[in-house]
What does this fold into?
Amino acid sequence: MDERESRYYHSLFEIAATLNSVRTPDEILHGIVKSVTEALEAKGSALMLLTPDKSTLLHAAAYGLSDRYVRKGPVSADKSISKALEGEPVAVLNATEDDRIQYRKQAKEEGIASILSVPMLLRGEVIGVVRVYTAEPRHFTEADIYFVGAVANLGAIALENARLYESVKKDYEELRLELAQWTATLGYEWMAEKPVMPAAD
It folds into this structure.
């Protein structure tokens, strides 16, 4: 195991621990892009999620990129490295000249040389992509691709769990409210989670 692979191994462990401890989707998404950028020693990274009609990729989180680049415009699922949305990682060596890049001019202005795009999978379905951007041309290795893919899939699971957690939490609060209303009809008032008997006439 070389130095880079060792760094990926330790980073993956730390990322898994972090994703397991956070509860909000925003924290999960930010944790993914920050960790990927630092582990690959890249310029930046972004996580984009597919719209329900699967026609557009929307930026959900970014790290190391300017707001101008992130807000450059809608990213077409058909035009921008579409192979990644078929479940295949795609590496682009020269982002400013490759036809698979939708915003080549903006990539040049941002100082982006190479891009790695890895699908984000949840139960076998592509829900988005994680993209890594470098300032210098880079031939991404199998280890690079494997690491980003592992983080992306961990993130998808953590994101789903966070949504389920919020859903369960909401259902629990609604159940408590219904219980309070039900007991009130029996002549009880529930306050601070303790039953209070109505005063005697």
User: Anything to note?
Assistant: The CA atoms of residues 91 and 141 lie 9 Å apart. DSSP finds five helices and eight strands in the chain. The chain has two domains: 3-162, 165-196. Residues 165-196 form one domain.
